[in-house]
Specification:
about 140 residues, about 30% strand, 6-stranded antiparallel sheet, alpha+beta, single chain, signal, about 15% helix
Length: about 140
């Protein structure tokens, strides 16, 4: 199931082009985080993020339950393809104030924010200021 979900996200990411939402974070000053993909309904919203920092670029997948305010880490890797082989955590955990998951949930659980736009509704940019791919349902 996890492989199908992430494979579908990665395939869709390879096929459509829009800009990602840049996250405002204060806890990792040497990196930029972008939301690359958002899919699913509010009770099972899957989000793929990109981190660009001194050590390079990486991607992570998380599944949010926006109603219960919980998150499940689904894996990370150096590429979107690496996410297909990632191992998901077994349990959902609370979303803590000040965490990256909190910043992501504030962007993706707000129904007025669409994938590919910033919180103010303007087009987002990737961490490299380049278009990246995104999906939405």
């Amino acid at each position: 199931m996890l492989i199908k979900l992430i494979s579908g996200c990665c395939l869709a990411l390879c096929c459509s082009f829009v800009s990602a939402t840049v996250l405002q974070t204060s806890f990792d000053q040497d990196a930029r985080y972008s939301i690359v993909s958002v899919s699913g309904d509010p009770s099972q919203r899957t989000v793929i993020t990109q981190r660009v920092g001194i050590s390079g670029t990486s991607y992570s997948a998380r599944q949010f339950d926006c109603t219960a305010r919980t998150v499940r880490f689904m894996g990370s890797g150096a590429s979107l393809e690496d996410l297909q082989h990632a191992e998901a955590d077994n349990e959902l955990t609370p979303i803590f104030k000040g965490s990256l998951s909190r910043a992501i949930s504030q962007a993706v659980c707000d129904e007025s924010v669409q994938a590919g736009t910033a919180a103010d509704g303007s087009p987002g940019k990737s961490a490299h200021d380049q278009p990246v791919t995104s999906i939405s349902q």
